[in-house]
């Protein structure tokens, strides 16, 4: 990768489409936690933790779409650098502070698996690395992924030396029942569940997803500085190789990851190491496939891009709608629906948010969350409406 001269920043339709696509995968990955409170607290004894639907989600979705989103965060940071110029430092600090505050509120009130606080913290780290060369950023990202994979392999070796230390946890049905009762109780019961569970799961998100997210931030930074998504002709000749690596290597590795997670012990740790290396390959294949589809059928981008333009609003909106369906904020259906019905709810939520995003942007430049975050970032009170 080589850095290229950057003209003034502009909105890139394809990036919005990819971001809108990634939102669908994130919804599918997250909704099982809303539908299965036992799984959310790490028990995994309720319907969404097993069966063919869970296997498909684990193989094709889990850890694949936050990878895309993290890459796009790094790429979008380069667009902000072009737009903000000398003000990038102060504005990015405010933006990350705003993201962090939004994430804390989101985590305690709606979704215990919130990732915005992690992105805010890593965004500040990315800011300190903004002058890094693209090639160096790629090398640093590869080192992060490699080191994390080696750590998982070392832990797997330790388990093989002492198998008794990796005994499968015994399902606590009483804890599962309590979690479901709190989630499906009244709003105060659900808030109690959030307060009890969010700090623990936030630590898991930071430790489990933080290194990979940072690596993808760096890959996105390198790609943005090299203008890869804006100059597709520079990498079009690599498409067959990306697809072969993604579907030929990344997909079998994802199958192994799912199998190993069901097996437990050292195999599960090896699966995590393999997944660290291979999930970016499958994610890249998803993106290249989508971009080819968008090129052939522009209406696909037209459907997805509005959600991508309002990604933060959609991310929060997913949690609001999922809460209204599964928690005491609304219908309290957690633990009541079979996995295939949960996927149906996800499809309805996604379609509804796609339609709402398109409708909103007919009269607004940004989503409501984006508007508030931008006003805080720029310290401006400009009106929301575009006309």
TrEMBL record:
The keyword S-adenosyl-L-methionine does not apply. Keywords: Membrane, Transmembrane, Transmembrane helix. The chain crosses the membrane at residues 20-41, 53-77, 97-128, 140-161, 198-221, 242-260, 272-294, 315-334, 340-361. Residues 223-378 form the DUF418 domain. InterPro entries: Bact_Transport_Assoc, DUF418. This is DUF418 domain-containing protein. It comes from Planomonospora parontospora subsp. parontospora.
């Amino acid at each position: 990768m080589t850095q290229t001269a950057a003209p003034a920043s502009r909105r890139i339709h394809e990036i919005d489409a990819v971001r809108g696509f990634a939102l669908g995968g994130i919804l599918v990955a997250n909704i099982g936690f809303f539908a299965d409170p036992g799984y959310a607290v790490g028990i995994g004894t309720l319907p969404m933790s097993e069966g063919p639907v869970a296997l498909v989600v684990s193989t094709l979705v889990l850890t694949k779409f936050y990878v895309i989103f993290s890459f796009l965060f790094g790429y979008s940071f380069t667009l902000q650098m072009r737009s903000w110029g000398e003000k990038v430092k102060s504005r990015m600090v405010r933006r990350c502070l705003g993201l962090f505050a939004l994430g804390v509120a989101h985590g305690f009130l709606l979704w215990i698996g919130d990732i915005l606080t992690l992105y805010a913290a890593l965004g500040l780290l990315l800011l300190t690395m903004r002058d890094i060369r693209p090639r160096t950023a790629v090398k640093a990202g590869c080192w992060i992924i490699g080191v994390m994979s080696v750590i998982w392999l070392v832990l797997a070796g330790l388990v093989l030396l002492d198998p008794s230390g990796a005994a499968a946890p015994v399902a606590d049905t009483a804890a599962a029942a309590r979690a479901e009762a709190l989630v499906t109780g009244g709003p105060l019961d659900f808030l109690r569940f959030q307060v009890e569970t969010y700090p623990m799961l936030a630590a898991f998100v930071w430790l489990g997803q933080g290194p990979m997210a940072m690596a993808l931030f760096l890959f996105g930074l390198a790609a943005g500085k090299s203008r890869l998504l804006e100059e597709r002709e520079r990498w079009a000749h690599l498409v067959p190789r990306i697809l072969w690596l993604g579907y030929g290597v990344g997909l079998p590795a994802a199958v192994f990851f799912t199998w190993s997670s069901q097996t437990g012990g050292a195999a599960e740790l090896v699966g995590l190491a393999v997944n660290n290396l291979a999930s970016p390959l499958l994610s890249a294949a998803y993106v290249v496939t989508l971009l080819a589809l968008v090129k052939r059928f522009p209406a696909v981008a037209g459907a997805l891009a509005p959600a991508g333009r309002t990604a933060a609003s959609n991310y929060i909106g997913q949690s609001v709608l999922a809460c209204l369906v599964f928690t005491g904020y609304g219908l309290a259906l957690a633990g009541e629906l079979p996995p295939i019905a949960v996927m149906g709810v996800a499809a309805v939520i996604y379609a509804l948010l796609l339609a709402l995003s398109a409708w909103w942007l007919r009269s607004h430049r940004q989503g409501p969350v984006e508007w508030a975050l931008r006003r805080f970032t720029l310290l401006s009170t400009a009106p929301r409406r575009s006309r």
